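fwd from M.: "can u put these together and see what the complex looks like"

so here's what she sent:
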Amino acid sequence: MTDYRIFNNDDAMRFADKHSELFGDHSKLSAEEFGDGNLNLVFRVSNDKGTSLIVKQALPYARCVGESWPLSTDRARIEAEVLRVHARFCPEHTVEIRHFDAELSAILMEDLKQYTILRTALIKGKQYEHVATQIGHYLAHTLFYTSDFVLTGPAKKAAVAQFINPDLCQITEDLFFTDPYCNHERNNIHDLIISTARELWQDEALQAEVAALKADFLSKPQALLHGDLHSGSIFVNAENCKVIDAEFGFYGPIGFDVGSLLANFCLNYLGCAGLLADTEAVTEHQTYVRQQCLTLWQVFAEQFSQLMSQDSQDPMLRNSLYQKQFLQQVFADAIGYAGCELIRRTVGLAHVADLDKVSSEQQRASIEKQAVELGRRFITQRQSLNSIEQVLDLLPL
Amino acid sequence: MTDYRIFNNDDAMRFADKHSELFGDHSKLSAEEFGDGNLNLVFRVSNDKGTSLIVKQALPYARCVGESWPLSTDRARIEAEVLRVHARFCPEHTVEIRHFDAELSAILMEDLKQYTILRTALIKGKQYEHVATQIGHYLAHTLFYTSDFVLTGPAKKAAVAQFINPDLCQITEDLFFTDPYCNHERNNIHDLIISTARELWQDEALQAEVAALKADFLSKPQALLHGDLHSGSIFVNAENCKVIDAEFGFYGPIGFDVGSLLANFCLNYLGCAGLLADTEAVTEHQTYVRQQCLTLWQVFAEQFSQLMSQDSQDPMLRNSLYQKQFLQQVFADAIGYAGCELIRRTVGLAHVADLDKVSSEQQRASIEKQAVELGRRFITQRQSLNSIEQVLDLLPL
């Protein structure tokens, strides 16, 4: 770490120039920094012909809080290595990593400037039909090919060790599974739903189910997860989707990635009632989002099943009855984690714009209560829900 | 590894002398090597006053097979470190490690020459009443204090990485969970039960359950297991028990350790009908073994419950309803793993003397068939068996 320094625009330009054949000495480069959120510096470096790349550097603390919350810059390595592994199995929907420098904790990657962030698109009511199909494919392939179905025992253990990610996992362990279920100072609860939050703090039956989901998050290294697959981690354009931001990646339960995205669709489903212009637009958009949830699970399940049946390497795990039971448990896990995401995005520290942008406080409160109630049902009913259709029947009309 | 050399008696004496205050320059030392089994050299080094210590050195291959089966000597580090961790939480029932040398892959440890191996005692029909109580205590304390109930996320992840044990885990993955369910050349099947073995190879419903248990063995790092807790890994005398041989240790499902020992009691229960002199002796010994199984689970469950309720650190895992469900799942896992142990000790590579010593081939075949059938019931009924009493009701009278 002796050579680590926080990049300015010039550093970012030099880094991009050095590690890419796109620029060259005589090109006229420019750089602009734009925040990606909380933990990193992100620069767009462009030449005078309009070609550009992204330089992302991990800061040694959480940017939103400041230097008081130290955070290992090893997360840049995790991000680069997860995305490279995922690109091996699904290059079409994974952002391309061009270079990673461990000492600088800096990544040079493809610029997706022709794309929009999925959350932004959804909030505007845009409807890209291919999202669920493509991300279902991404999930099936990245999760299957990093799992026990394919890797030998020794290879799997080495991969688990490579992706041990204590700092970032602890953020999830706390913000996702603990804070929303107690009166924690980090929580961010709008005044009008404080009684809804209090109910969560007192619901021991719900908390027992969340504890089981947390225990699996801690101790169920089934596959190399993205670890933070919400609609802000997906870029979309008219034809394609690309997944970015894998710094929360680690070996965990497969249902976590699937459930995270399902929940973000559900949050948008609920929020759009307060975001879009008229009832007709809301109905149309909700029909689209519902269909995306359905397709996401169907495509994931179908492709994951096919991969299990055709490409499993472990002789015992080739058993088709076991594979069916395995997928059923992934489904229950996914619905449970979706429930946790719905709750923590409503009463926890980090909210989503899909709800926070609802301008009427009354309407926002009513939607937030729906989100918490939906989350509760997902968590408590996850083992008895038998199909994605049954899950979607729980969405308010 | 440059300094690694295979010990002779002189090396073992020098090693013991150098790392212990028990001997001293002028003591007259002697050493004898005695096989512990398959993977290591074991020396007893004694001085002329009768004080002795054990020197155990890992060989870079599996001794029973020869140099053709290479095996990492890192297992000596695993063994020493697992036993030291376990001794922190249960010193009274864990063999004391005096010194470990990484380059030589050699361990200096307490000599338990006043003790007998539990399997040897059981085969002779000896009945030590304290075994189950003490090992139940050992299991509850070593497994609880290395689990997510106690360790923070980062501490747990570091511990998982410290105890990644690919070579030895692969032996279990193959011999325990795969070979017995197919016609593998490593299997060791007595002629008279070949049809029983064939039934295992064709039973897809059973194999699906074994696949689920194998998947958990691969991906459920709940606690730091001993990893090979059969009755040959326990020393016993009139007052005490001590656990040895932890080279298979790793982070795995808690039920695996509990189930391994339960199965070894059951194997002795079945075998003693062909080992002891008369019907009365058999009945008496079987009553004792049945009681040991009962006590083992009861003591483990009671103490583990108490530890969960009094000493859990993770706020979500303090939930008593969750703790109850957790223990119930450990029970089902334990019965499942016990079933796998019963089967692999009968038709797999490594048998147990409790069955192999039955001199009548007909009687041994009949007992082996009972062991396989009991294993099958354990595995397939594990989720519906509600108490240890119900499990013991499956034992033939």
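replying to her w this: The radius of gyration of chain A is 21 Å.
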